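Teaching soon. Invent one.


***
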Amino acid sequence: MKALVKTEPGYNKMALLEIETPCPKDNEVLIKVAYTGICGTDIHGFKGEYDRLKTPLVLGHEFSGVVEAMGEKVTSVSIGDQVTSETTFDTCGECEYCQNKEYNLCLNRKGLGSQVNGSFAEYVLTREESIHILDEKISLLAAAITEPIACGVHASMEKVQVQKNDVAVIVGPGPIGLCLSQVLKSAEVKVIVVGITQDAERLKTANELGADRVIDSLTEDAAAIIEEFTHGKGADYCFECSGAAPAIKGIFDYLKQKGTLVQMGVFAKNLNELDMNSIVQREINVIGSRSQKPSTWHLTLDLMKQEKINAERLITKIYPLEQWAEAIEQVMAGNEIKVVLQPNKG
């Protein structure tokens, strides 16, 4: 099969190669990939900034497809089923996190596209427990970005529990931020999306998808606008989705006393400036939200089934796998909202 492989650490070091198609055994399922999204962490991997990758490795972890084959112990899916999959491929199965099905926190977790081969290929191998059969209302194209939508669901409905009429600020109108905006609007939260001038089209999309206010922080005073919007109180929540170090320097100015910062974005470096005195003096809560867990996927797919999330609206470019370099270039340039690869044509 054709696969896009990160051959070794470093910048780029990517090649479209012919590799052996995996053969599923036991509880494994082989999926013929229909569409696979390019995530920000894939870009970190491309740039050589993500040290969790175990090369040589097929990147990619957001995908949909059709069940092609399965191991002898698989009972819940059938050949021909249209599916998507969680990103967990293997865990220890014994730690407290595994016992609670918080696989995203297992220290021995192996993830698709990070420790085992992922979905930038004609076929991807996953495990039965991670598979979700798609409702007829969810297209294969929409399902390809279930994972980033689930990140927003986990952050806003599991790590914190947003309520109707809460005010939430989203910093970073990229795919994660725009997915999250729709999730929050489905819960009747008031949403403010903050970006920069080069995010103009994405801010426009956020507005079209129901955001109550969008802000260009380079030309507008975001803190002042948020203060006015909240009648001087400040936002209940701020979801940092950009992973950009400059974005967090004044981020607590958006929050009310005892407000909550939910950090979702992944930074290129581990150490970044954060106003620690505000955390103390204003009793700010800071919560990390990593990926998602099985319960999140059920919530997410239910929202998609109810058509409360317009996933396809966020997909602005589709490239064949052979044009992966151009696709990655477009993602890095910020010219598109969500770019997906199509490994199998037709």
